[in-house]
Design a protein that fits this description.
Elements: H1 8-11, E1 20-24, H2 31-43, E2 47-51, H3 64-81, E3 94-97, E4 110-114, E5 137-140, H4 146-150, E6 158-160, H5 167-172, H6 176-182, E7 193-197, H7 206-214, E8 221-224, H8 228-232, H9 237-245, E9 249-250, H10 257-263, E10 266-270, H11 275-282, E11 288-291, H12 303-306, E12 308-310, H13 316-325, H14 330-340, H15 348-378
Parallel strand pairs: 1-2, 1-3, 3-4, 4-5, 5-6, 7-8, 7-10, 8-9, 10-11, 11-12
Helix pairs in contact: 2-15, 6-10, 11-14
Length: 379
């Protein structure tokens, strides 16, 4: 089976024996990515669960306090959604994480890496060898990521799935008017809407580009949606203070990204983040300006077909004006979405469930062959 296909064995796995799968939550944003897949697996008769790492387990952040704040943010989000969060079962057949294998080394079963967001930075955090190797399988969003991960892991252990978090939005179709109403944007307000969606850590454009946004705030209605880790990490206090001063409508970090993208006239996001590829999937007609403290050469070539790349604050306002006056990249974004995301009709959770079960099946077959070989070798 290729990375983009579905085998008959995987589709029928539920009819044989139930698979026990733990999806390890390491930040609240993963809930909307994992939950649809968990629901699909449960529907097929498997025991799939969202679980939180042990408070004494490997840390998710730079300090114990930050680790506990992230865990608490996950608990609050799960409780708000009415989703149970039982203790991890280290005897589960499969554990799924978005982080490195080190975070799940104590689990006895198969270990799968589950991608969350397309990154276009060539030396991106999740494209490093140490974060890819030693997994029994990797589930990526689409064909774009397959050669990247194939450098470090056997391609036969890679599957494509799409973006489960956006299944519902893709099934419902775009509705700009309702998205604006939910955001409380007055229909008679003629100011164009800019969504500012900075990431966190050293690649955040908050400190570098916020002042340039402030200089045009009288001409635009600005929405700001920070990254969830900006709200919980102590190291992000500087970015939080800058965003507090920005004359904008501040949205919580868990506000639906789909509504923000579809309600906007221009989206300003960090080039390092996954916002650009997701916009290509769910709102390709919305112009995109990508901010960066790195030159264009630091990114994969697809960055040029997503939006206008800005590396200097003085160029931000002209780029926003140019994007509004004549965005020529909508068709390019649609084509990129086909490469970025293997499933685009709202069935990514089902495809992800197929992919996971197929990896379980192929891993089990490999294990049986390995055992048979060593039994023969001992005779």
């Amino acid at each position: 089976m290729t990375s983009g296909g579905h085998s008959a064995a995987s589709r029928n796995s539920a009819s044989s024996s139930a698979v026990r799968v733990d999806f390890l939550l390491t930040n609240p944003l993963l809930i909307e990515q994992f939950a649809p897949v968990v629901e699909e697996l449960v529907r097929r008769g498997h025991r799939a669960r969202l679980v939180l790492p042990s408070p004494r387990g490997s840390k998710l952040a730079g300090s114990s306090d930050e680790h506990h704040r992230i865990l608490e943010a996950c608990r609050v989000a799960l409780d708000r959604a009415g989703i149970p969060h039982p203790a991890p079962d280290r005897r589960a057949d499969v554990v799924v994480t978005v982080l490195s294998q080190d975070h799940v080394r104590k689990w006895r079963g198969l270990k799968f890496k589950f991608r969350y967001g397309i990154g276009l930075l060539r030396e991106g955090f999740h494209y490093q060898k140490k974060r890819i190797t030693r997994f029994d399988g990797v589930m990526v969003h689409g064909d774009f990521e397959v050669p990247i991960f194939s450098e470090w892991i056997d391609p036969s252990r890679i599957r494509t799935m799409g973006m489960p978090r956006h299944d519902m939005a893709l099934r419902q179709g775009p509705d700009r008017k309702q998205a604006r109403e939910r955001l409380g944007l007055a229909l008679d307000d003629r100011r164009p809407v800019i969504a500012f969606l900075p990431t966190w850590d050293e690649h955040s454009g908050t400190a570098r580009f916020a002042e340039a946004l402030m200089s045009i705030a009288d001409r635009y209605r600005i929405l700001v949606k920070p990254h969830v880790l900006t709200e919980v990490r102590a190291s992000e206090i500087g970015n939080r203070r800058i965003l507090d001063r920005l004359p904008a409508q501040r949205l919580p970090s868990d506000y639906p990204l789909v509504d923000v993208l579809r309600a906007s006239d221009v989206v300003v996001a960090d080039a390092k983040s996954g916002v650009g590829p997701e916009l290509a999937l769910i709102a390709p007609d919305v112009p995109l300006v990508l901010t960066s403290n790195l030159p264009a050469e630091a990114y994969f070539e697809q960055i040029a077909s997503l939006g206008i790349l800005v590396t200097e604050p003085r160029d931000l306002a002209p780029a926003i004006a140019d994007a509004r006056e004549g965005d020529s990249l909508a068709a390019s974004r649609r084509r990129l979405a086909e490469s970025f995301f293997a499933e685009r009709s709202g069935a990514a959770a089902a495809r992800a469930a197929d992919a996971l079960l197929d990896l379980v099946d192929s891993s089990s077959q490999s294990h049986r062959l390995w055992r048979a070989f060593h039994v023969r070798a001992r005779r």
